[in-house]
Amino acid sequence: MQNVIQVTEDLFYLGGNDRRLALFESAFPVPRGVSYNSYLLTDEKTVLFDTVDSAVGELFFENLDHALGGRDLDYLIVHHMEPDHSATFLRVVEKYPSVTVVTNQKVAMMLKNYFPFSGKNVRLIKEGDVLNVGKRNICFVFAPMVHWPEVMMSYLKEDGILFSADAFGTFGAIGGSIFADELPFERDFLDDARRYYFNIVGKYGVQVQSVLKKAAALPISMICPLHGPVWRRSEDIAWYLGKYDVWSRYLPEEKGVAIFYASVYGHTQNAAEILGAALAKEGVPAKLYDVSVTHVSILLSEAFRYSHAVFASTTYNNGIFVNMENFLSDLKAHSFQGRKYSLLENGSWSPQAGSLMEKTVSEWKNMEKLGETVTVVSSVKGETREKIEALAAAIAADYKSEKEDKS
Ligand code: FEO
Predict the structure, then answer these.
(1) Cα torsion 223, 331, 209, 49: sign
(2) Among 46, 79, 198, 322, which residue is least crowded by beta carbons within 10 Å?
(3) pLDDT tens, position by position, 127-179
(4) What are phi and psi of 272, to 5 degrees?
(5) Which CATH number fits domain 5-248: 3.60.15.10, 3.60.9.10, 3.40.50.2000, 3.40.50.150?
(6) Which residue minimizes the CA distance to atom 3 of ligand 1?
């Protein structure tokens, strides 16, 4: 049965939720599910903004039928070709054979690569072009690499509505309400929104900044993303744009220390816990993460969230413990940068993890090391504890000086 939700007088939400998906993009756990959003505008022309993942395809077609109310579909705007939004594209153009597909050159090429699609009835647009659909005009804003190279957004000029593709989306199914102002977004969605941002588009901060500059020139009264809730209250939109600004400039969102440890028999964990307790004694908040337990997508998001990071790893196969190595590799792939960091290693006969981690992390942009690398030989003893406390003091001194600078 259809579940069309009215967004404005002539705009309808046609999307759906998948709460059974284990891994989004076969990579990211989504225990709270994910939504695939699509919107229909019913002006003098009918305009569909993107399609959906096949997981919610049946509901989507029921919604589309219902929202059209017997009218034909005039335009299908394709913003992004990733199959979580385009999997049902071919079924739409087959069902509505007179529909005009409105998109850019790169999308048009990908459509032919993904589907046995003739390319018939495609209207190619360029950045800044305007499509009149009756009482309203739709402008196009290109957003390459947010998240693929073909991505664009569209802007419904008379209503101030931005259809933002993946940008401003989040993991987490929506339901009950599709509007951010009717959900406890900060409580229930912010962690997922941050994780979505850093894992999906975090690598492309420069491109996100470029889109934010374009968006700043537009009066935006509503943001309709392809995942997660719709934004329609000006103060909420400003708050979320502010988050994107901080995230895309690679700035810490919060002051705090994230301690990431890799431990086989618990001794490196013990060292990390002692460091956390020593920091707490100095009045510095720290959070600990076992990199073998917490999913790397969460580790990545939390590393970007905080101002300070500690990497603590046991030595394994003469190298960095595999889960820590994987985490560091993911941080590098997402252009992690601009943080204070400290190191702790463990090794029972030949500690190597510290120097190898230093070689990796020191090559990233604007990274500043605090304190000396602490070496634990098998387990923490009196002298090692002193070194851990000295490291905590070095981190705390920096943390407090930054705090005073900003106060
Ligand atoms: Fe939601 Fe890049 O696709």
Answers:
(1) negative
(2) 322
(3) 989 999 999 999 999 999 998 999 999 999 999 999 999 999 999 999 899 99
(4) -65, -40
(5) 3.60.15.10
(6) 82
